[in-house]
Model the fold of this input.
Amino acid sequence: MPELDGARLTFKLVYYGPARSGKTTNLMRLHDLVAPQLKGELMTLDTQGDRTLFFDLLPMGFVAPSGLLIKFRVFTVPGQVAHDGTRKAVLSRADGIVFVADSQVTEETNNAESFRNLAENCSRVGLDFDRLPVVVQFNKRDLSPILAEQEVRQRWAGVSWPLTFATALSGAGVAETFALLLRALYRQFDPELQLSDRHGLDEAAFVAGILP
Done:
């Protein structure tokens, strides 16, 4: 559940996935897209063996018509197996997740193992994975050989999570992925938070308040 503190509502969003799938690149491109007045400094902590030891933090926000300040804190997690404790710590109290998969054919096993790890860690930190807003992004569409889009859609047919395709290095699909997550967040939490009724904030404005 988002953190409500007086007139400020904070959503915690996490980019999760295998090592080097493009989580950090997604956040860097997203940071580039957001209007300067809506974003804080993008902080990256690199380490040997993985691009992100702890997380990238991207505080963003806007004000609803009612005066409610809505903030989004966006994190990545390290993908390497050795950093599972850090992943659980960052995942704790998350309100929404983007799972960044690597589209390369050679990465299918790593994608599957990381997704299982996500589901398991959600349970371990007390998150209801079945109700959590999740978007699955297949990144690195510029490489070869990659899984065809049709094949990906067939394999993920029947799941409730929206799928998106991206090349985060160039920025393609980054905004679309984040917009899907914002829509999922709104639909999940609007009944409880009454964003539309009490705060005059509909779904379109919730998404457009951050993205150009």
